[in-house]
Design brief:
- This protein folds into five domains: about 210 residues, Beta-Lactamase (2-Layer Sandwich); about 100 residues, Beta-Lactamase; about 170 residues, P-loop containing nucleotide triphosphate hydrolases (Rossmann fold); about 90 residues, Helicase, Ruva Protein, domain 3; about 55 residues, Homeodomain-like (Arc Repressor Mutant, subunit A, Orthogonal Bundle).
- It is built from 28 helices and 21 strands.
- The chain has a five-stranded antiparallel β-sheet with strand order 3-2-7-6-5, sandwiched between helices.
- A hairpin with a 5-residue loop joins strand 2 and strand 3.
Length: about 675
């Protein structure tokens, strides 16, 4: 009679008494000789942490908001798991098995299976929203699988905590295409005669089920990549005519098309599975992109392959599992134009006019003028205070223009060291200066070929760079640093400034001839204080964004808090409003953001504002009086008490009531 070979880490039904004796011995002495090494190491960790094996070491039950956040992040994992597990529901019912899907932190995201066993699970607090952590529950299947990174079984007395000795657990990590652990699958059954008979088969079923889920995850990741390709391609030939490689977070090639194989001299299917660093020449920048360390998501790299120069654009694409990002690499001869945001893989303008929020007359006039400007090829100058959304407007103009299928390249002129501005704008040849790459580099003008170049904070350019920029605008030609070759360019310029360029010209700080070249179609972007009727819709959109994209709790503004936002002048404009709401969401505890949740500096604006305050509650008015008196008294409690006409004891009691901290708010000693 043939016997099935026992899988790695799998327990059998025999030796249950031995396991129990070993558990008792370890509990008493801290040692055991006849127990698996991975189980023994886990028991030792539990003992060192002071975990009592005789207590009911149930998992932690996390807040609903934490569960919602994890479900949102791991939505693709859950969908892939459900596709595999739902058809197995009948098998779980008949076999008395419960199946659980957990995130990498041990949070239970989904449970299904035997109704009878699910009730038992509920009795030990194992439910959706509970978190299996070794330091709380002791040794269990999920905690051991996550610790070892391999499929494991934990049967009966192999559990460190006695309250789980009734169960058999079979658990395995779930990995994405980059071999990153993105979750855990657990099968549980009752420990005993019947359960031990099915144990070997459950372990094998677990391993095969995890493989199926991982295949579904990989398929979803490929679909995400192909959707990205089709979305970013103006036509199918735009990306089938260039070499395409998809590389995972470890640098392994997942996909390599025919064009890439031809360019790189590879045989059919030879590239798939290889390390990208062995295929492409060494590049520190490519290494940084693969590690997620590059500040730019899309960075052009120039490499050599034999005697032919090739241009490479590497773009990071999040995986379907939400873990490490894949990298999409396109290769084409260096003489060809760069693919644009909707015509290949390049710099992308994400925003359109529909993304500009607000209906105030000043804003509607700006949008009207911007739409007119987008239909022409004129140079545009955007002037407005910091944080008013000038780059958003520039992207909308680009996406409404005939250049929408070409690149949108933005460069912040104030953020680049003066000595590097010229090479950033115009590029350089190999050996042009100390520290330059031997193969040279493209400049932003070449990268933006056929599209739009957005020069942010153009007012900060040094006089010598202003002169060179003027020549480029007049001649539509550039010369790389260290080169003599003249290169023709076709780029639409949108410049922005946070100060008046005309005023700088009068002060002699900006070239008048360059100003006239830039000031062809000028649009003044109004500050937020001049369109306060837009504040509510922008704030609500920002709160929704923080909830959906950053997994922040869902919040809404109270009427009093909104009144305070409307009363503030917002010198930092929309950027300041966003920072304010991010802070308020983080400190608020209920569904609404109240006045006391807003940053302290806003209260000064409320005090100085002439806006009626009859809608503010008495509690908030009392807190406002306290903070105002302390601010005017520069933190002197005794003086603030005299100003309010109360004793120091009363003032301290009120401060405690309103959770006002002297040290946190004013940095002074409360005993002053």
């Amino acid at each position: 009679m043939l016997r099935r070979r026992r899988g790695k880490g799998e327990s059998t039904g025999r030796g249950v008494d031995v396991m129990l004796q070993q558990w008792k011995q370890f509990v008493q002495t801290g040692s055991a000789e006849r127990i698996r090494k991975d189980i023994l190491r886990s028991w030792t960790r539990c003992r060192e942490q002071g975990l009592d094996p005789f207590r009911e070491n149930y998992p932690a039950v996390l807040p609903a908001s934490r569960l919602e956040a994890s479900v949102s992040v791991h939505g693709d994992l859950l969908e892939a798991a459900n596709q595999v597990l739902e058809p197995m529901q009948g098998l779980f019912d008949r076999s008395g098995v419960v199946c659980g899907v957990l995130d990498p932190s041990g949070l239970v995201l989904h449970l299904l299976g035997s109704e009878r066993l699910l009730k038992v699970f509920s009795g030990v607090q194992v439910a959706v929203g509970s978190q299996m952590i070794e330091s709380l529950t002791g040794t269990t299947g999920p905690t051991l699988a996550m610790a070892t990174g391999i499929p494991v079984s934990v049967c009966g007395p192999e559990h460190y905590s006695r309250c789980y000795h009734w169960a058999n657990c079979f658990s395995s990590p779930i990995r994405d295409s980059g071999q990153n652990i993105v979750g855990c699958l657990n099968f549980s059954s009752a420990h005993g005669a019947q359960g031990d008979k099915t144990a070997p088969y459950l372990f094998g079923l677990l391993v095969q089920t995890v493989k199926s889920i991982e295949v579904h995850l990989k398929i979803r990741e490929l679909l995400v990549t192909f959707r990205h390709l089709f979305r970013s391609s103006g036509s199918l030939s735009d990306w089938t005519s260039q070499g395409i490689l998809l590389v995972n977070g470890r640098g392994n090639v997942l996909l390599c098309n025919d064009q890439a194989e031809s360019i790189l001299g590879l045989k059919p299917f030879e590239g798939t599975g290889q390390d990208i660093r062995k295929i492409l020449p060494d590049s520190l920048l490519l290494e940084r992109i693969l590690r997620g360390q590059s500040r730019e998501e899309r960075v052009p790299i120039q490499v050599h392959k034999g005697t032919q120069h090739y241009s490479i654009v590497a773009e990071r694409i999040p995986t379907a599992s939400g873990s490490a990002a894949n990298t999409l690499i396109s290769i084409r001869p260096a003489g060809k134009c760069w693919p644009g945001p909707t015509g290949g893989i390049g710099h992308v303008a994400r925003y359109t006019f529909e993304d500009i929020l607000g209906k105030s007359p000043p804003l509607l006039d700006v949008v009207r003028r911007a739409r007119i400007a987008s239909k022409s090829n004129l140079t545009i100058l955007l002037e407005g205070e910091t944080g008013t959304g000038k780059e958003l407007l520039a992207q909308a103009i680009h996406n409404d223009s005939l250049r929408r299928s070409r690149p949108f390249v933005a460069i912040n002129c104030s953020a680049i060291p003066r000595e590097l501005v010229e090479s950033e704008l115009f590029g350089y040849v190999g050996g042009a200066f100390t520290g330059s790459r031997k193969e040279g580099s493209f400049g932003k003008f070449e990268i933006a070929e056929g599209g739009t170049l957005f020069l942010d904070e153009v007012n900060t350019l040094a006089p010598d760079i202003q002169a060179k920029l003027l020549r480029v605008l007049e001649n539509r030609q550039i010369v790389r640093v260290g080169d003599v070759q003249v290169r023709n360019i076709d780029v639409r310029i949108i410049a922005s400034s946070s100060v008046s360029l005309e005023g700088l010209v009068r002060e002699g700080a900006f070239r008048p001839d360059l100003f006239y070249r830039l000031n062809v179609f000028k649009i003044d972007v109004p500050p937020l204080r001049e369109r306060k009727e837009d504040i509510q819709v922008i704030a609500e959109a920002l709160l929704d964004y923080l909830h959906q994209r950053q997994n922040a709790p869902r919040r809404k503004l109270s009427r009093e808090a909104l009144d305070l936002l409307l009363a503030h002048d917002w010198p930092g404009n929309v950027r300041e409003l966003r920072n304010c709401l991010e802070y308020s969401v983080s400190v608020s505890s209920g569904e609404e953001i109240h006045v006391h949740d807003l940053p302290e500096y806003l209260l000064g604006g409320l005090r100085k504002s002439q806006k009626p305050l009859e809608k503010v509650s008495f509690r908030e008015m009392e807190k406002l009086a306290l903070t105002t008196a302390l601010r005017d008294a520069e933190g002197d409690v005794q003086q603030a008490a005299r100003m309010l006409g109360v004793s120091r004891a009363t003032l301290y009691r009120k401060l405690k009531k309103h959770h006002v901290s002297l040290h946190k708010t004013w940095g002074v000693c409360s005993g002053k």
